[in-house]
Amino acid sequence: MVTLTHEEKELLVALLISTDVAKELVISEINDIEVGEKKLETKTYQQLIELYEKIS
Q1: Residue 28 — φ and ψ, nearest 5°?
Q2: Is the C-alpha dihedral spanning 35, 31, 50, 40 positive or negative?
């Protein structure tokens, strides 16, 4: 696993959001859950939905 500083994490998140990559990743996770390819807790699924709404 890669260890990043807080500043590096913030930069990475900003980059992912600004290029819409974060949105695509969240959409992909939601779709995988909805079609049954991934099993997650309902809470995690709801958090992904809320996250998508924030970054859209």
Answers
A1: -60, -45
A2: positive
